[in-house]
Specification:
By secondary structure, the protein is α+β, with helices and mostly antiparallel strands. The chain folds into two domains: 244 residues, Nucleotidyltransferase, domain 5 (2-Layer Sandwich), CATH 3.30.420; 205 residues, Nucleotidyltransferase, domain 5 (2-Layer Sandwich). Helix content is 37%, strand content 21%. The strands form seven sheets. A seven-stranded mixed beta sheet has the order 17-18-16-15-21-22-23, with helices on both faces. It has a six-stranded mixed beta sheet with strand order 3-2-1-5-14-13, sandwiched between helices. Strands 4-7 form a two-stranded antiparallel ribbon. It is globular and about 70 Å long.
Length: 494
């Protein structure tokens, strides 16, 4: 028997097939090969057609079945991971009423800021654990204010993964973890936030039916089977947003465990017991995949927009063919890059600076000393420093890193980057070979009562190596402090 996991991103849909009992990875794919288009009609807008996600889910599913020669009836469970914070709205026939307003769309920022003021900081802290900000609830309010004819036709709202589950099964549902990332969840009362719905004038009838994150959520129906190639009756048993799911993929399931990713943007995600919230405007707190009313575990999410995109920009600008070459060049330069400093914040407003736009800065360039190799190392150090700056914020919310778990990809394949970060946090960084789609597939084969089985499947198969802090941390700390002093001046000027 097998499980299949889907990861619905804004650039592509990834799908992986794993053995049901062991969690062993058989094969995977992604569609499309080129990045999916993001529609941006106005500045700051970002939309995608949710039917396009479903189209690529079906292509990926059929391709896996064809190449693996697995009989569809041997697929026992489906797991779904998805891009967080998106809004999908459908009519009574379950047809989308408009394009999805996806995670990176910023049209509802002012709506969320106004809600934070009018609902009150203390209320948001005690009940929502977040400012409403630019999340799904604020996007739905935007539709009400700006597209009233469409709003009147809404039967249900949902998140991107909920829509894919709907297309498989014909059933509309969501999870507490999903609704919390949309800021619809009342953590104090452990239920849908009636106050938020009332404030935004969203009828409670629009809220999807609630299902557990793990367990029998729905089953593939005849139409879903015909379009996807999977068998009628195949169970959908797991669903989560991409960052909580990435944490799960790295076996970050309990308080004190922390995960990180270093792609275009950077994320650090730690799990706590949910009893302490201090930072609401610089980090986010959502119900983790292991959240239950009995054990309300939450994930604290730190996001840094200007991470890998800075390294990508440098690669294109210098005309270097590969990241491996850049990583090799960076290792020829001493710690601190001989005073060259890079501030990698050129990818829009940064939440860690309370949505200020700092842009990218290169400081102390000496034309007689600095070379492209220096620029490579200084950029990697600058990104690592920005991670650590954010981790210092996470510490305010009681995230204490004993071990940091990461995927063996992107920025974490650079020894300069990983050694710099490990030395700053003074803790080992474990690298694992896994993906969000693999994590979703494995998670679909367990229940809330058997989470330990999932941890065993992950740790026994994916571990690559562990990178420890340098014996002499002093050069890294001195370089970071120099970088941070100038950063503080940049922030004050904004």
């Amino acid at each position: 028997m097998y499980s299949i996991g889907f990861d619905i991103g804004s650039s592509s849909v990834k799908a992986y097939l794993v053995e049901y009992k062991s969690g062993k990875v058989l094969m995977g794919n992604k569609y499309p090969q080129e990045e999916m288009k993001i529609n941006s009609i106005n500045k700051g807008w970002a939309e995608q057609d949710p039917l396009l996600w479903w189209q690529y889910v079906c292509k990926a599913s059929k391709d896996l079945l064809l190449k693996s020669k697995v009989n569809p009836i041997e697929i026992k469970t489906i797991g779904i991971a998805y891009q967080m914070h998106g809004l999908v709205i459908v009519d009574k026939n379950s047809n989308p009423l408009r394009n999805s307003i996806i995670w990176c769309d910023s049209r509802a920022v002012e709506i969320g800021e106004k809600a934070f003021i009018e609902l009150g900081k203390e209320y948001c802290k005690e009940y929502l654990f977040n400012s409403p900000a630019n999340f799904t609830a604020s996007k739905l309010r935007w539709v009400k204010e700006n597209e009233p004819k469409i709003f009147k036709k809404i039967y249900k709202f949902m998140l991107p993964g909920d829509f894919v589950a709907l297309k498989f099964s014909g059933k509309i549902s969501s999870t507490s973890s999903g609704l919390s990332e949309g800021i619809f969840w009342d953590f104090k009362n452990k239920s849908i936030s009636e106050d938020l719905l009332k404030y935004y004038e969203i009828p409670k009838t629009m809220v999807p039916h609630l299902v557990p994150t793990f367990g029998n959520q729905s089953m593939v129906d005849e139409k879903g089977s015909e379009e996807s190639g999977l068998a009628v009756g195949t169970k959908i048993t797991y669903r989560a947003g991409d960052q909580p799911n990435n944490a799960l993929s790295l076996s970050v399931l309990k308080p004190g465990q922390v995960a990180a990713t270093g792609g275009t943007s950077g994320v650090v995600y730690g799990v706590t017991n949910g009893k302490f919230v201090k930072e609401m405007t610089r980090i986010n707190t959502f119900a983790h995949v292991s959240y239950t009313n009995k054990e309300p575990l939450v994930g604290k999410l730190l996001n840094i927009n200007g991470a890998g995109i800075q390294y990508s920009w440098l690669k294109k600008t210098l005309g270097i063919k590969s990241y491996d070459k850049m990583n090799e060049m960076s290792e020829k330069v001493p710690i601190g890059s001989e005073e060259l400093l890079v501030y990698p914040f050129g990818n829009g407003a940064e939440r860690i600076f309370e949505n200020k736009i700092l842009n990218t800065h290169f400081k102390n360039i000496n034309l007689n000393i600095h070379t492209p190799s220096h620029m490579c190392r200084a950029t990697l150090e600058g990104i690592a420093f920005s991670f650590y700056y954010g981790i210092e914020i996470l510490k305010n919310d009681e995230i204490d890193i004993k071990v940091l778990r990461v995927g063996n990809d992107n920025l974490f394949r650079s020894q300069v980057f990983i050694e710099t970060l490990a030395s700053l946090i003074n803790a080992p960084i474990e690298r694992h070979n896994t993906t969000g789609a693999v994590g979703a597939a494995r998670a679909s084969s367990v229940s809330e009562e058997t989470m330990s089985e999932l941890a065993e499947k992950i740790s026994s198969q994916d571990f690559v190596d562990s990178v420890s802090s340098a014996n002499d941390r002093k050069p890294y700390i001195e370089a970071y402090n120099k970088w941070k002093n100038i950063l503080n001046n940049l922030i004050l000027k904004k």
